[in-house]
Design a protein that fits this description.
Layout lengths: L1 H16 L17 H33 L4 H30 L1
Length: 102
Amino acid sequence: MRKLTFLFLLLIVLAVASPVYAQGGGTPASNWGNIPIGVGLGMGLAAGLAGLGQGKVAGSVAEALARNPGARPGIQLALFIGLAFIESLVLFTFVLLFLRTS
């Protein structure tokens, strides 16, 4: 059921996104009014999914530390590297969205 829901939402997103970039009969900048909506959706999606990922990582680290407290230095290093990678994806999205709008 989850895969079906995901595919349905993906189909909706693709169906809504494709007409935005279709060639219109007006001026070349006729679709610039839709860009803030896309920027808001893109940043919200990136930040929300990164937050879910960071929560999953933190939960897994807490469980690993509860099982084996002696492995704290290695687990902590992996935690910080993983969180940095997840956060960098959001920052890259943020930069790309600003590059798209300028």
